[in-house]
Amino acid sequence: MKSMARGLVLASVAAGSVLGVSICGHSQEQSAGPPLVTRGRVALNLAGAELIISRAREKAVEMKLKVNVAVVDEGGHLLAFARMDQARPASAPTAITKATAAATLRQPTGPVRRGEAEADVLLNVALQNAAAASGGKMTSLFGGVPVVVDGQVIGAVGVGGATGEQDAEIARAGIDALIKQL
């Protein structure tokens, strides 16, 4: 019985070779198309996220602020988070939301404008309602900044606990430290 099974396997392998079919079941002709995976891409890792947080915290101390800092990957998944001593706990989810929105929307967070006009209040209220419906994945608050390396968004930083402009400045300080190290 075992020799019969071995014989069938060998016959199948031989038939696949004759027909141009690989053991994996893909024909050799399929490999001539576009690549099926992306290789050699840049990705933010934990060491990079920790560097960003370290410098962001230093910047917050220089500014005499206590903030929450979140770093996410390109898909908005949390890599690292820090809440400075005496930072508002309620700003922690805001920092994570800012980072997630900046990463997934591929742009800094902030009030939405219609063209060059001032921010549209009703549009931003609608966006905040959409954010609530999305489980908190969007925001029109300043303080979320994407991390861009070689023209590719590889993650984002979100800061919460100060004014939106200060949050964004702190986030950029962390990102700048990472870029200088590359």
From TrEMBL:
Transmembrane segments: none annotated. It comes from the Bacteria. This is Heme-binding protein. It comes from Caulifigura coniformis. The lineage of its organism: Bacteria, Pseudomonadati, Planctomycetota, Planctomycetia, Planctomycetales.
